[in-house]
Structures are given as structure tokens and as C-alpha cells.
Amino acid sequence: MSVLVYIENWDGKFKKLSFELVSYASGVAKMMSTEVTALTVGDVEDEELRKLGNYGARKIICIKNSMVRHLDNRLYSSIIAETALKEKAKVVIFPNNNTGKALAPIVSVRLMTGVGAGVNRLPLSIEPFTVYKKTFSGNAFARLVIKSDIKILTLQQNSYGLVPTENNATIETVEWNVDAASVSTAVLDVQKQTGKVLLTDADIVVSGGRGMKSPDNWGPLIELAELLGGATACSRPVSDEGWRPPEEHTGQTGKIIAPNLYIAVGISGATQHLAGVSASKCIVAINTDRDAPIFEAATYGIVGDAMKVLPELVQAVKELKNK
Amino acid sequence: MKILVCISNVPDTTTRIKLATDSKSIDTTGIQWVINPWDELSLTRALELKDDPSSGVKSVTIVHVGTAMSEPTIRKALAIGADDAVRVNAEPADAFFVAKQIAEVIRKEQYDIILCGIESSDYNGSLVGGMIAELLGLPSVSSISSLKLENGRTVMTREIDGGKETITVTVPFVAIVQKGIAKEPRIASMRGIMTARTKQIRVYEPVAAEPLTEIILYEKPEPRAACRFINPDNPGELISLLQNEAKVI
Hints:
Low-confidence stretches of chain A: none
Largest sheet of chain A: 7 strands, parallel
Strand order of the largest sheet of chain B: 9-8-7-10-6-1-4-5-11
Structural class of chain A: alpha/beta
Number of domains of chain B: 1
Largest interface: A-B, 96 and 83 residues
Order of helices and strands of chain B: EEEHEHEHEHEEEEHEEEH
Largest sheet of chain B: 9 strands, mixed
CATH architecture of the largest domain in chain A: 3-Layer(aba) Sandwich
Number of strands of chain A: 15
Helix content of chain B: 25-40%
Order of helices and strands of chain A: EHEHEHEHEEEEEEEHEHEHEHEH
CATH class of the largest domain in chain A: Alpha Beta
Helix content of chain A: 25-40%
Structural class of chain B: alpha/beta
Oligomer: heterodimer
CATH superfamily of the largest domain in chain A: HUPs
Strand content of chain B: 25-35%
């Protein structure tokens, strides 16, 4: 028996999300009195693989294939499903991101397993296997019983955190033979965003709404985000207007994020916006309207004009940094 | 080329969800039901493709798993412009149950491109599209923010962590779409609403499928503590609270 966790790598490197997944898998494994096997696909050096052991992985499997470099859903799902059976996995864990959303349902059909999608804490019980998950975009939560023998969970990013657990992990590198004819997708071009903190990975996010009044007013907001080592985001009207790029849109239909700190500047806080950010640990709202719904979700609020407040916040952070 | 758009019937996204007295379901009183936002965008993109004669798209069909209660949502999709519709007459028990029903419809009727929204705004599972693909042994591509047909070849944009890929796949396949696939959802015209009344809805009875999950209880999110207001003339206080009280910077 084991708990299998699928860990993506980015050009052979792991990131915080990877270690959070292993930490979570270790928590689940502990509840089931079993151990964690971590699986990754690609060229990852042993030194990097060993890092997964620092969060509780007992065994690390690295699958290498020299033929297919991009995510082909069927190929990756077959690798994961076969490994799950070989490792006698009772639970298979994915991130609840683009990759996890692509693979978890396919693996679930291959293994005939129920899926607890978007869980944000350890299972409530193992027998019956009950998880707590978001429904209605965060307006309600559900206790979901997974009835199949094997279970799949997808973990909401930044909901569990890192739990270092020294473990002497074994590393197994496997060369996977791919039948090229079975790969039906081909990637023609890749555009990577470089040099910036990714919105989905950021611990701190500074986000602007219509209250920013014009695309020309973004300077102090960006400066604040940079000073805090965070990422910038925006509300839907702002991205629809083209003030900011569409990939910055946070909200129900945009990116769903859960940073430690979300600073909403000039955002009124419509239900659809809150659906994308309500899992943030701490929300700061800056808005001229004392009755804006964003203040209901906020931990701290400032009723005031963003154009006046933002430069002063930038100044205050600079002073803090100089101390 | 035939496109199938999978449609889920969800509470309007501004709904304040209330629970039934036993908390085993939600209180549906007064809820306005709509097409799931991502499905509405899929439908819009499918219709845009059909409008372009060079795309080779001949028909756009919608499929929905639900009881007669969701007919208004199906009629709305027909009014927006879908040619016809299939409804599998069953209470959608879980993602696997729904996927199994839709896979059966595809097996029977054969489609080239199957479009699914990346999630439904009610159960937030992101599961049905991938499950349909695997039940049929079809390829799938997820997190698609653009879909074009160029000389019979599909060209899509896939959102990845920190970037985008241009990806192609041969038909038939399942595309699981997100925001960006269409700019604004298409709105039904008066003529569309009139013609929707005469469009065909084929009603199929469900095939047997054992749900793999069951929701046993709903809970409302824990209420947040009241907002602490900070004097706008002293933003420095906020920074100090974030550092010393919330400990997030």
C-alpha cells in the first residue's frame, strides 16, 4: 500500500507547490499508516529529486522518456495509472492546477476511482473516505465521500503549506518506452513568461480594479508588488478593458488564487471576484466606498482613494525595508 | 465537421447559496438557473466557427444531463444558436455518472470536436471533460484559451503554468476550455428565441453508471472576522499590522 503523488517539474526543477504536495501526501499517508511515493516525469537530477524526501517522500520515481517532451494527457495518464497500480497506491494526489485538472480525470477513469477535486485540508476520515471540498465557487463547502477502492485527490495550491519531514528516500529512475503513434498531440510553439513572480505561485498579490481609474495609474501598484516580492493581478473589468493583460484576471472565470496576502485596490468585490480570491489567508481592501462588499471579505481595510493611499504604502514599505 | 458542446445548468453566479434545512442539499428556492459560464463561452466559440464557412463546421449540438427542470437552459442554448440538443434524462449524480452518459451519446451520434468547460461553477470539479475523453479512448487537451480550424487542422492555445503553448491534435478529440476561448458570451436574438421553440431536443434515458462519490453534507464557509479599518491618513499602521499581527510580510 502507498500514497502516490504526482509532482510536475519545470525544466528539471521543483518549486514550493511541489513540496507542498509531498507534505500533503505525507499527511494523508500518516493517517493511513503507509508511505509516500512521489512520481515525476522528465529529466530531473538526483540532487533535485532528493529534495522531495525532505518533505516525507519515501520513494521517488523519475520517469524519463526521450520522445515526448510536452504534456500529452493520455501518455502521462497512462504512466501515472500504471505506476499507481505497481505501487499499490490507495490514494493518488495531484495539484488542482492546469496540469492536475488535465490528468486527474483521465487517471480516474483508468483506475475507476472517485475524485475529490480541490481539497484544502486532510481527509476528514479514512473510513469512509471523506474529504472537505469547495463547491459553488467557495459559497459552500461539501463533505464528499469517495466510494471507490482507490481515491484521487487534487489539492488547492497554498492550502496546506510546507511540512518538512526528513526521510531517507530511495530514488528509482525508469526509462519509459513510448509508442510515438499513440501520441496524438503536438506542440507547435511555446511562449514562457520569464523573470516575473507567477501569479499562481505568489505569496503576496497586489490587485487593481476599476477604482484605479486609468491604465496609466498602475505605477505605484506595481512598485508595491515588487517591493513586497509579490505578483500583480486585476479584476475582470480591468482585463476586459485591456488595461492589464488577461492572464492577470483573478476571479471565478479567471485565475483562482490563495496567496498569504491579497491586497485589493479599487476593487468592489463582486461575488465572481471573491470566488477567485476568498481562499487568501489575509485580504486587504482599499476602496473609496465604505459599503463595498470587498470589506466583508477583508481582514484590514482602508477607506480612501487608491491614488493617495498607494504611494504612501509604498513609502511605508520602503521605510520598513530600510530598518 | 460536427461539434458537440456539453452544457451544465448552474445557479446564476451572483446567487447567495443557502443550504436546505438538513444541509444535505442546497435550497433551490428563488435560484435563477443559467448555462455554466465556461460552457456558454464554448458554445459561443463553436457558433463563431460554424459562422465561418471555411472552418468546415456543419453543425453545433448541445448535450446536457439533467431532468426536465433544465429545459429552459437548453432552450436558451438553442436560442443562442445551437442547431439541436440532446438531454439525458437523469439527475446528475456525480462527475463520473455525467461523463458516462455523455460518452454514450457521443458513441451513438459521433462528433468530431467535443467542447467542455473547464469546470462547472456549482461543483468545481474540472472532471467531466477528461473523463468523457478517456471513456471513449479519445485524446483531450485541457486549459484551452483559443481554438482555430486552419485548413482542416485544429490549432489551440493551451495555458500552462507560466506560459502558453500552441498545440494541435487530430479529430476527434475533447477540448476542455477556459476563459479566452471567446471574448463575450453570445446573446440570443429575438429571431433565435423564436426559432429555438421549434428546434429538436432528443431525450435519451440514462445508461447504468455507479456514482463513485457522494456529497453527504454541505456547510457554509466560516464567517470571516469583521474588517479592521485603518485610518487612511496613517497607512504605515497597515504595514505594521501586516508584519506583526498577520505576519504575512
